[in-house]
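Quick start: read one record
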Amino acid sequence: MLTKLKNQNSNIMSKFKSLKTITACLTILAVVQLSSCKKEEEHDHTQNAVDTANPTISITSPSTMQVFYNGDTVKIRGLVSDASLHELLIKVVKDSDNSVLFSETPTVHDLSSYTINTNWKSQVTDHTNARVIVVAEDHSSNVSSDTVHIHIMP
């Protein structure tokens, strides 16, 4: 009888541990869902047939084919605007192999404009042609990009 009670107690404890694990998993899923972009009923990320305008991007610095030396700070400046921005990517890409030398994704969610004010310290070992690229997407999946070519001396 005592063995039977111990087995039942062990079985109940095992089920309790499983229930605690399931509860913990559900709690984590709920937190992830709540911390994601706004609730779907409050914020629709699907294509809006009315909004067909791409975000506008203006890179004001660096200038086209501006020359930098290894170790120089490349000041990336500009303005991005749209009725409702969703995502923004700023990157510097090496022309010869498309490797990414610098990348940044500032938080622009739901902003109507964003002033780009970021710096990258150049690190190259040989003459390098590169592109400063800014890509913006709005909530209607309209995408724009702007590119400035630069040269970096070793």
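The longest strand covers residues 128-138.
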